[in-house]
Design brief:
about 270 residues; 4-stranded mixed beta sheet; CoA pyrophosphatase
Length: about 270
């Protein structure tokens, strides 16, 4: 018999709901607990990892921390409050793994972590100095395998009920910490599709930084599942390496260079917003 990840990671037990979930987060909270967001991901990302998977290592978790007016009542035209925002980090360009990428705070499970929530909150505190007592877990998504690194990541959706000052608490890991307005992420003008070697995925310009890959897919899934997405042009597909070279991510781009035998894809210009 094949052994799977511990139950809390492979088939997550949902946390108790907070006493008062903000009205504008109630629908996405229930959808996420019922398997939403994950439904919006690619077939590969929805594959359930197992311990005997040659690509898999130990479990990890990331924190999808959302802030905004706790009393706001959503309307069809304005489904989230003006101050709604999502916490992201810019990973240090000197890291060996995922260097320079825009990412949710998070990391690998420690032995003392009983659940993905423990991992996500601990890692977020270590990276951004966010206080655990200022947030409430809303939902735990099923784990997602990242074949290139072997990380098996459980995203944790949480509400930041009392935002306090955050900063790169671990400069060796994190270059910057930013709370991005949901209104910016939903803006069609900052959205593009990037591709490499047959893979394509959504991306977002955050000033001169490019949010893409695993985190970009989760943000895209969150916007769509929550009904926060605005129509945007998903074509053409821009070359990932060329786009990253025009960003301020400072990511190594050699590994993403396209096969020279394949036709070139359009190149996106530098984008500042």
């Amino acid at each position: 018999m094949t052994e799977e990840f511990p139950t809390s990671f492979s088939d997550p037990t949902q946390p108790p709901l907070p006493d008062a979930v903000p009205p504008w987060l109630r629908a996405i909270t229930q959808r996420a607990r019922d398997g939403g967001i994950r439904r919006q991901l690619s077939d590969l990302s929805r594959r359930t990892p197992r311990l005997d998977d040659a690509d898999a290592t130990r479990p990890s978790a990331v924190l999808m921390l959302v802030a905004g007016d706790p009393t706001y009542e959503p309307t069809p035209g304005t489904p989230y409050p003006e101050d709604a925002r999502l916490l992201l980090t810019h990973r240090a360009p000197t890291l060996r793994s995922h260097s320079g990428q825009m990412a949710f705070p998070g990391g690998r499970k420690d032995p003392e972590d009983a659940t993905p929530i423990d991992t996500a909150v601990r890692e977020a505190q270590e990276e951004t100095a966010v206080r655990p007592d200022t947030m409430s877990a809303l939902a735990v998504l099923h784990p997602i395998l990242i074949p290139r690194t072997g990380n098996v990541v459980s995203p944790v959706l949480a509400y930041w009920n009392n935002p306090t000052h955050v900063y790169p608490a671990s400069p060796a890991e994190v270059a910057d910490v930013v709370a991005i307005p949901l209104g910016h992420l939903a803006d069609p003008s900052i959205r593009i599709t990037v591709g490499r070697q047959g893979w394509t995925g959504p991306a977002f310009w955050i000033g001169d930084l490019l949010l893409w890959g695993f985190t970009g897919g989760l943000v895209d899934g969150l916007l769509r599942e929550a009904g926060w997405e605005k129509p945007w042009n998903a074509s053409p597909v821009y070359d990932l390496a060329e786009t990253l070279a025009r960003s301020a991510n400072n990511e190594p781009v050699t590994r993403w260079r396209r096969n020279p035998q394949k036709p070139s894809t359009p190149t996106t210009p530098n984008h500042k917003n």
